[in-house]
Amino acid sequence: MFPTYRSIGKRIRFNRIMGRGRAIIFAFDHGVEHGPSDFPEDRIDPRIVLTEVVEAGVDAVMLLPGVARLTSDIWGGRTSLILKLTSKTNLRPEEYRLIQSIFGFVEDAIALDADAVAATIYWGSPFEDEMLEIWFNIREAADHYGLPCLQLAYPRGPTIKDRFDVEIVRYGARAAAESGADLIKTYYTGSRESFAKVVEAASGVPVLMSGGPKTPKAIDFLKQVRNVIDAGGKGVVVGRNVFQAPNIKSMIKAIQLIVYEDRSPEEAVKVIK
What we know:
Layout: H1 5-18, E1 23-27, H2 30-33, H3 46-56, E2 60-63, H4 65-70, H5 72-75, E3 80-84, E4 86-87, E5 101-102, H6 106-111, E6 116-123, H7 128-145, E7 149-155, H8 166-178, E8 183-186, H9 192-201, E9 207-210, H10 218-230, E10 235-238, H11 240-243, H12 248-259, H13 265-268
Parallel strand pairs: 1-2, 1-10, 2-3, 3-6, 6-7, 7-8, 8-9, 9-10
Antiparallel strand pairs: 4-5
Helix pairs in contact: 3-12, 8-9, 9-10, 10-12
């Protein structure tokens, strides 16, 4: 049986991101998800942050369509683009913050020469059905054009008391795999042993850790990255722990030493300036 044109395209694009077997993806959707207050005052302009990130060398940047359009001269031809097609603001009433809205289309990803698309599902949300409908529409179009799909599998809802509990996170990872994700981004569960259960539940779909809020000390985040890799995770999708760091490039270098070279956190932290 010969591969289809679409499956070839999907494999090639997937390998542009995951060709090393592991990946460091820079997430930069915070301007909508959290608002400009997430950024240091001298880094409000996305061009400043993305220039340093791309120069430091990441496997991909995950952007919403608007910022991707405004910064294409920075990332274009230098790193892979993952176009995030859903988002939400914290300006909306709290009871509607557990649903993501459409922020773009797969055709936008094709037009921007993206290598993958991404969308969030809040597993356990009262609006799970609405997000699943958006997800399946994205996945169907992405499959048609040969684009991999990254799912941000985030368990959140009124019945979830601890979104970082391993049983909750592994449930979300399994649901992401069952809904056809090609890559899964999800929460760190606190230890190598517990995150290994998340990786197992994903049934072979590569799992990457969500970077989450900035840790008080860089070494704390690097220890999380080390545990994720040791648990069988395939890398990180990180934002705040990079763009809120005093030195963006040296923080990325430290993460690279762990993800690409299997160094210890104690070794990696030495390159941070």
